[in-house]
Amino acid sequence: QVQLVESGGGLVQPGESLRLSCVGTGFTFSSPPMSWYRQAPGKEREWVASTTSFSQEYAESVKGRFTISRDDDRNTVYLQMNTLKPEDTAVYYCHTLTAGAVYWGRGTQVTVSS
Description:
Blueprint lengths: L2 E5 L2 E3 L5 E8 L8 E6 L6 E6 L4 E3 L7 E6 L4 E6 L8 E9 L2 E4 L3 E5 L2
Parallel strand pairs: 2-11
Antiparallel strand pairs: 1-3, 3-8, 4-5, 4-9, 5-6, 7-8, 9-10, 9-11
């Protein structure tokens, strides 16, 4: 059974940093791409970043501020978020596509407010 469990969200002030983690179990973690999405109140879920073993890609809105990385030995993908802005406030979800199916975590709340 595939499971994705996010952690690391919280309340921070503008300009501060957070690191999100997502632990994946029930599949060969090193194989599929891993991604982060986010959903702000009243908005659709949007893609934030993805990583494979060879590359990382980012949405324009977070490029230069967020870094996605993975530790396949720990079955964990990270999202380092720097210089956070109020518009980064959202629930952040971990995502993967493996064995022909899409999986989501339950999300972790990130709130950026002064």
